[in-house]
Please model this.
Amino acid sequence: MNTQQLECFTTLAKTLNYAKTAEQLSMSQPAVSRQIQSLETELGAQLFNRTTRSVSLTQVGFQFLPDAQQMLGLYYHSMEWISTFHKHKRTVLRIGYADSHANWFISKILAEVLADNENIVPELTLDQTDANLHRLATSQLDLVVGIKDAKFTAEDIAFQKLHDDVFICVMRKNHPLALACKKRRRKSVSSEDIWPHRQVIAIPPYLLKHVFSRGHHIVPVNDELDNILCATTSEAYNLALAGAGFALIPQHLTLPHKELAFLPWSESPHAPMGIYYRQQSNIDKNSAIYKFICLAKACAATALPCSKQ
Model:
C-alpha cells in the first residue's frame, strides 16, 4: 500500500468520477484505474461499485475511507514535521515518568532547558517504571525520572540521585488523624498513629505480585482494615482528597492542596529519587540530556514540595 493508491482512493471516494479524480491528481484516467485496482487486489476486497454510468463506494470502501484519510494525514504531518525538524536543527528530548504528579518537577526543569535552547523538542512518556526503563535500555527514551527501582540492573544505564525521598502522610484536613495532630500541635505522624485508620495504598501493577507474594510492605499496612489498593500515586492522592482514607505518598509527588493535610511520617524509609540515563549519552556537556540532569540537581535542592500542614 502506498500514498498514491490512497490518494486515488480518497479522491475518487469524494468525486465518484474518474475524470475529475484524474484531473485533480494530474494523472491519466487509466493510471487512476490501475492504482485503484492494485489497492483492491492488495486488500482483497472491492472498494467501488462501477457501472458505465456511475461509481459508488462499496460497504468495505465506505468503512475503509476514514482509515485511508487518517493514514494520509499522518504521512503528510510526519513529512512536514521532519522537514521542519531538519530545517531548524531541532533536538528531541524523550523523557519517561511513572506518575502524572511528577509533571510539576519535569516541567520546572524543562522551562529552564527550553529557555536556553528553544530548538529542543520534549516528548513525555507516562508509563510504569519497568516499561520506561526498557524503553531507555533500547534507546526509545533519553531519560527516566522517578524513584530508583531496586529490581533494575543494566551495565550501560546510570542513575543520578537527586535526593532521598521520604513518605508524607496525606489526608483531608477533616480526617480524624489530621484533627488529632492539629489539636496536639504535632507536625508529624508515627506508624502507631496511622495504624487504626484506613489506608489508600498505591502499588504499581508490575510490583503487585512481587509485594504480596513475599508478604512484605514498604509501608505499614493494617490488614484488618478495609484498605484501598490502587495503581498510581495520583489515584491515591485523589482518593485521599475524596476522604477515602490517608495515603503515604513520596515527597516529590505531594502537590499542595488547600483541602489536604501533609504530615511527614516519622519512621519513613528513604528511597533514592533521581534520573536514569544511558551513560554514553551524558558525555556531551552541550547536550540536552546533560543540561536536564544538571538543572534537575538544582531544582531538587530548592523546589521539592514542602511537607507542611
Remarks:
- The first strand starts at residue 48 and ends at 50.
- The first helix runs from residue 3 to 15.
- The two ends are 61 Å apart (CA to CA).
- The chain has a mean pLDDT of 87.
